[in-house]
Input
Amino acid sequence: MLKVWLLAIACCLPLASHAVLKEKDLAATLAVLRAELANTYNEQKQNIARYNVIAQMQHKQMISLMQRSDQIGLMLYSQKQDFTFDMTYACHEATSLYHEFNKRSMPYQKILDRINTELNRYNALISSLQTIPPAVAGNNAHPQVPVKGKQPTPLLVGPIGGKPAPNGAMQPFMLSKQGQADRDSCLKYATALRDNLDRMKQNVVQDNQHYKMTAGKLGKLNDYALQRYTAIQHNIFINGDANYLEILAQFSRYLQMAKADANEKYDVEKVQDKNKQHNVESQWRGPIVVGLSIFVLFYIFVASLLSNVLVRWLVPKRFRTKEFMKKKVCLILAAAMIIFAISIMVCRTFMYHNFFLMASKLLIEYAWLLCVIFVSLLIRIKGDQIKSGFRIYTPIMLMSFVVISFRIIFIPNNLVQLIFPPILLVFTLWQWSVIRRHNNNIPRSDIFYTWVSLTIMVASTFAAWYGYTLLSVQILIWWMFQLACIQTVTCIYDLLAVYEERYLAKHIGEIANNKVARLNILEAIRKRHEKHINQTWLYDFVAMSVVPVMGVLSILLSIWWAPAIGKAASSVGNLIMWATELQPFFMGILVSVIVGIALTLPISSAAICAALSLTGLAGGAAVAGCCAQMVGFAVMSFKENKWGGLIAQGVGTSMLQVPNIVKKPLIWLPVILSSAVLGPVSTMLFHMTNNATGSGMGSAGFVGQIMTWQVMAQTEHPVVVLLKIVVIQFMLPAVLTVVFAQFMRKHNFIKDGDMKLDL
Output
């Protein structure tokens, strides 16, 4: 579309050869103008020819766009509210088409303004040429443009006033014959240029009418889709459905409802017409789902065969080490998944079926997420631990596949409510079982990740059984994306450590197995790199800045990448605040934990909250999570760091604990749990609020407390506000963290010296 309006403007822009300056006299000026207009006319003809070709293509695209908008409108307006996955797909298509249309917006008004300006200019030029004596007969004459080899016949009258010179002599102010010829040619070229622009204007006006009509139709579609998104989000976070115990009590009724929805959704569409029944083929009915299943199973089988051949027989013998043989089965699985993802991507380029296009897109996303996790485990985990590593993540990966399958087949809500809670419970128990059997044979970081996965699955199970089934689906989809991001970041850290030990240390002249090399990454950077910054600056920058920023941004990106049901907010910040207002319990936990973690990591949580404009209840939950991190680490490590550590962490920053967290991630768990508890307490019991400035500061310099006071003191009694600040931002973080920490110390998860600071 851009080419069209650029050419349109090019056709009416004054070209470099289009203007004349003051020559020695009028005759010379006319001679130069004639040459300039001739060049302009030829260039305009070429531009108009290209414009007509591209305009035809543009008309076809416009027609296609209008048809797509009509098709999506029929799809969107016909959806039932109870079929959430169907409705969200229709809303997504409508909003996507609207944004695509706006990205390719055509500046028709700018084109028309330029054309009108050029038309006025040419009309003035024509009028000026016509009034040069001897005048041309009629101001509306449209002589033809001179053709090569044929001289035009000038239409001339006498000088202005109608009194010719005596004896046919020419008046002093009249043009010579050559001047008259130049003037006539200029007039004819200018007229032709004006007429071409006028015809172009008519075409642009017609296109502009179609464009405005399409824009209005898509605008209505987008508005309706956003309304439906709002209703869906309200159902997810507020209304929910019947809890599963109620469903079990009325199992037969819910089973009949699920069967009816399934038959309506997946049966062949039938139409009764004049006592004759015939089937209507749909791209989204049951037989297509079966076909997709066969398609996926076939490519999984082919990918498995190829990966077996590749790993078992095509790998050279020199690479078949003991470590390789231990990882052989897992390598086959990873290779099979990569081949499957590439195969689906290739097949998708030849697809035209809408259902297969949608389904293949989701399958490709899921396959690449699994590939990221598989590759990360193969790189990071040793051969003796690899099987345990794969088994520990199997439940969450398969559970995610179940959720992705629900999205692909657009499973009805009643059927989801009936089958999803027990399925999720089984997978949660499976996750607990593999943790008990394999957690002693995997790295510390993966132990932490598996416990987080179990926590996520337990929370999802609780939500599903309580009646918030779609919310649990959303949580699981987000965690699958988040887990892939976490595995990527962890893998990068491990690769950095290997690079630092094997190559960088040798380059700066140190022994790889010395005492410093056995320290954690950040301590090694401080000890080893401070004297060799010219050699290590890039490594330090990646390890200390890029990767931590990636870790925090992955949370927001995962929310953005996994729009299963609710992608409608204009910004992430608005979505967070809106969701917190609607569901303060769950969102209180989420906001408090995430912002608290961001504060401890070597990035700016304050900048994140300011960028998201995190205010209201969400801001209150954020500052509670930050205080849990700072105050929690301060009191939890008081035994090791005494009063200096208390002040440095409680009023300064909990970021001081990052080296110890990298060495032993479990020390982070008590403050994270405190954040999870304080989030809903802040939103539901104390109704704490804050502004964007203080929400990400915690107790650093008491900025969070000052901002809380400024916001809340406007509507509540100052003494009450002060008591709330003391309790929620100082007392409870200290008490809760100490309780959780003592429990972990008692079971030897945390030992003396784990949180020692080098102050």
In short: The mean pLDDT is 78. The two ends are 62 Å apart (CA to CA). Residues 2-161+171-236 form one domain.
